[in-house]
Design a protein that fits this description.
heterodimer; A: alpha/beta; Hypothetical Protein Ychn, Chain: A; 6 helices; B: alpha+beta; Translation Initiation Factor IF3; four-stranded mixed beta sheet; 2 helices; 4 strands; 35% strand
């Protein structure tokens, strides 16, 4: 029986958007799917060696649950983004949610293929050495070849 | 029931229980049984879905001492 395929396009680089592609990929791979994740624009942040740049801002994020109501003019104060990021990461750790690093390692072990969008890398003038080993660099055409025959196609 | 290997996934949240189960099963031979304990309430449904999709049989699914306990046989 041929294994099912999942194609994900990851375009976002904040903490809340970084988790879904990694959780879905690692789980699908555990279920025997062949998975490819195309990281473009801010999704490239998932592939950096240093993931500390992936943060979350309370500003203009009305969906974010807060321990106390926070008016917008407080959300934009310096340091609030760092605080929101730290609080969310601490909560995740307390609840046994895997870190991004751990999920990414699990993905790589399960042979999930990560493709960095060459165009975006050039656009932002990133260096290949900024990114982890074991990834490929490619474009939309190459990815669409896989995505076109995938059973699940997701745009995140 | 007898088991050949044990995995303590307590305190871990989705998707770690399933991913670690898969990893642990890789180390077993066909027919061997893995016992998994988890505190993630979602793992009950996840284990059923995992068994169904991968063909590894879920022999037992229950609760014991405040945790969920599963017995999975490698196909």
């Amino acid at each position: 029986m041929e294994s099912k395929k999942m194609a994900i396009i990851a375009t976002k680089g904040t903490l809340d958007w970084a988790y879904p592609p990694l959780i879905l990929s690692s789980t699908a791979a555990a279920l025997g799917y062949e998975v490819q994740v195309f990281c473009t624009f801010y999704g490239l942040s998932l592939l950096r060696k240093d993931l500390s740049g992936i943060r979350i801002s309370p500003l203009a994020n009305p969906a974010m649950p807060m321990p106390v109501p926070m008016p917008v003019f407080v959300q934009m104060l310096p340091g609030m983004e760092a605080m929101a990021t730290m609080m969310m990461k601490n909560k995740m750790k307390a609840k046994g949610v895997a870190s991004l690093e751990e999920l990414r390692t699990l993905c790589l072990e399960a042979e999930v293929k990560f493709i960095a969008c060459q165009m975006t890398v050039d656009l932002f003038e990133f260096k290949p050495s900024d990114f982890i080993d074991g990834i490929e660099f490619g474009g939309a055409t190459t990815f669409l070849d896989f995505a076109g025959s995938a059973d699940i196609q997701l745009y995140i | 029931m007898n088991f050949d290997k044990e995995l303590d996934a307590r305190g871990l949240n989705c998707p770690l229980p399933i991913i670690k189960t898969k990893k642990a099963l890789n180390e077993l031979s066909s027919g061997q049984v893995l016992r998994v304990t988890s505190t993630d309430s979602g793992s009950v449904k996840d284990m059923e879905a995992f068994a169904k999709q991968t063909g590894n049989e879920l022999l037992q699914s229950g609760e014991e001492g405040g945790s969920y306990v599963f017995l999975i046989k490698k196909k």
